[in-house]
């Protein structure tokens, strides 16, 4: 089972993703976002704490921006939450927010392809959570457009390797 769960912020996608593996005896929860976000933002810290409190105690949490490596090393079922925070970490690392696209995009596309390969090659059940950001207005600022475009590409690449794609809206799950 390889599943991509997408939806808007606070749609219930993480809760649903976790419910898909809650019966598994071994679960690795991969949090691929930049760890400094928790320290810098009290709202982010509260959200992370809320997510952690929902997880069963026997789940192992791995915090790493090396998403392909974390997927490959994971034991048991895998939950990745989420691709949006991973893309943010990659854009930060590549200093892409203000840089010329040609300077960093090829490397990010390679990293996205590596994540998709890791999902494809995983022999464990894997559930990847992501944000759906392409359904709204065109962002006013370049950084918003860069994030939207790169996350959209990552979502497509990972979805192509999944058996199922689910869209969560207002806590309701639609199979795509």
Weakly predicted, low-confidence segments = none
**Proportion in β-strands:** 15-25%
Number of helices: 7
The largest beta-sheet arranges its strands as: 3-2-4-5-1-6-7
Q: According to CATH, what is the topology?
A: Rossmann fold
Distance between the termini: 15 Å
CATH class: Alpha Beta
Helix percent band: 40-55%
What CATH architecture would you give? 3-Layer(aba) Sandwich
Number of strands: 7
Coarse shape: globular
- Give the topology string: H per helix, E per strand: EHEHHEHEHHEHEE
Task: Write down the overall mean pLDDT.
Answer: 91
Coarse structural class:
alpha/beta
Largest sheet features = 7 strands, mixed
Number of separate domains: 1
Pathway: Cofactor biosynthesis; adenosylcobalamin biosynthesis; adenosylcobalamin from cob(II)yrinate a,c-diamide: step 5/7; Cofactor biosynthesis; adenosylcobalamin biosynthesis; adenosylcobalamin from cob(II)yrinate a,c-diamide: step 6/7
Enzyme class: transferase
Catalytic activity: adenosylcob(III)inamide + ATP = adenosylcob(III)inamide phosphate + ADP + H(+); adenosylcob(III)inamide + GTP = adenosylcob(III)inamide phosphate + GDP + H(+); adenosylcob(III)inamide phosphate + GTP + H(+) = adenosylcob(III)inamide-GDP + diphosphate
InterPro entries: CobU/CobP, P-loop_NTPase
């Amino acid at each position: 089972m390889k599943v991509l769960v997408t939806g808007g912020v606070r749609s219930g996608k993480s809760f649903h993703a976790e419910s898909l593996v809650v019966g598994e005896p071994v679960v690795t929860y991969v949090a691929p976002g930049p760890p400094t976000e928790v320290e810098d933002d009290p709202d982010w810290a509260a959200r992370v704490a809320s997510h952690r409190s929902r997880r069963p105690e026997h789940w192992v949490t791995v915090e790493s921006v090396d998403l392909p490596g974390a997927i490959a090393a994971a034991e048991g079922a895998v939950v990745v939450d989420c691709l949006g925070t991973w893309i943010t970490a990659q854009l930060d690392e590549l200093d892409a927010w203000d840089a010329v696209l040609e300077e960093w995009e090829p490397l990010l596309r390679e990293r996205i392809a590596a994540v998709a390969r890791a999902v494809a090659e995983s022999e464990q059940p894997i559930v990847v959570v992501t944000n759906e950001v392409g359904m709204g207005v065109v962002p006013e600022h370049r950084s918003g457009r860069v994030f939207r475009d790169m996350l959209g590409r990552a979502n497509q690449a990972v979805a192509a390797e999944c058996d199922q794609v689910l869209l969560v809206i207002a806590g309701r799950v639609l199979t795509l």
